[in-house]
């Protein structure tokens, strides 16, 4: 009986291990994910710097340029605040906040094991760095510089949607991607919450079943020992 129980326990443990392995997708090597994250951030930062420089060179003092039948306009706008022109008098606070965000992302990056999260955080890092560069290096001075915006949707004056730049687009797209991944249960470490919850429930069920078998075996052994024990009442009647 003990041999059968040991074989049953080993079989159930192997099944649990197999389910756990199938529930956790293969994790990408850390250096590849870091390369993906920082590669996206650098690419977005480069595009942001180039497009802002072109906007200053071509749009300064010029009327808005209409594109795609009025769906998009190119117009130069210097923004001292955040998106939607919020906190226009707190440029230095926004600059310090961007520095903190970038520092947290760099600290958190080695913990990533998900390509989706690496892409999303890379976009946020590139966008935050691009706007921070404006606040540090552009007029009127360090930590007080105005961010260069030049894209306006459906109207040339930003009345339909605030004027923005590629860095803003990267931050929004990265944030939306991370929120979607979180809602779908995909964690930054490469695992899926729904599968982990299902496996935990299966393990609890297996554990309860194994305990029942052990209790039944113990009761059976007690009955057998009681039937042959001369000190018990049944044994005395048989003798």
The average pLDDT is 79
Which spans have pLDDT < 50 for at least 5 consecutive residues?
A: 208-224, 226-239
Alpha plus pi helix count: 7
The neighbouring-strand order within the major sheet is 1-2-3
**What class do helices, strands and sheet pairing give?**
mainly alpha
Radius of gyration: 32 Å
Morphology call: globular
The separation of the N and C termini measures 28 Å
- Largest sheet, strands/sense/barrel: 3 strands, antiparallel
Encode the helix/strand succession as letters.
HHEEHHEHHH
Amount of helix: 55-70%
- Total E-strand runs: 3
Name the beta content range: 5-15%
Structure explained in plain terms:
The structure is a single chain. The chain has 239 residues and is mainly α. The protein has a domain at 30-63 and 90-149 and 165-184. It contains 7 helices and 3 strands; from the N terminus they run ααββααβααα. It has helices at 2-23, 30-59, 91-108, 115-137, 166-183, 193-228, 233-238; strands at residues 65-67, 72-79, 147-153. A 3-stranded antiparallel β-sheet has the order 1-2-3. A hairpin with a 4-residue loop joins strand 1 (65-67) and strand 2. Helix 2 (30-59) packs parallel to helix 4, helix 3 (91-108) packs antiparallel against helix 4 (115-137) and helix 4 (115-137) packs antiparallel against helix 5. The protein is globular, with a radius of gyration of 32 Å. Residues 208-224 and 226-239 have low confidence and may be disordered.
């Amino acid at each position: 009986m003990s041999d059968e129980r040991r074989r049953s326990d080993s079989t159930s443990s192997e099944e649990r291990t197999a389910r756990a392995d199938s529930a956790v997708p293969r994790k990408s090597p850390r250096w590849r994910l870091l390369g993906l994250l920082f590669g996206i951030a650098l690419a977005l930062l480069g595009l942001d710097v180039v497009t802002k420089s072109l906007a200053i060179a071509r749009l300064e003092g010029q009327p808005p340029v209409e594109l795609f039948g009025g769906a998009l306009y190119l117009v130069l706008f210097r923004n001292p605040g955040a998106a939607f022109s919020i906190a226009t008098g707190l440029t230095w606070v926004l600059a310090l906040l961007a520095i903190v965000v970038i520092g947290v992302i760099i600290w958190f990056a080695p913990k990533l094991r998900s390509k989706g999260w690496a892409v999303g955080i890379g976009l946020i890092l590139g966008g935050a760095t691009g706007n921070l560069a404006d606040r540090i290096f552009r007029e009127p001075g360090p930590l007080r510089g105005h961010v260069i915006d030049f894209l306006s949707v459906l109207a040339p004056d930003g009345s339909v949607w605030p004027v923005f730049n590629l860095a803003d687009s990267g931050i929004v797209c990265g944030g939306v991607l991370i929120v979607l991944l979180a809602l779908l249960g995909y964690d930054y470490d490469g695992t899926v919450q729904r599968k982990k919850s299902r496996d935990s429930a299966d393990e609890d069920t297996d554990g309860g079943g194994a305990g029942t078998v052990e209790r039944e075996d113990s009761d059976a052994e007690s009955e057998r020992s009681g039937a042959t024990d001369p000190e018990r009442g049944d044994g005395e009647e048989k003798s």
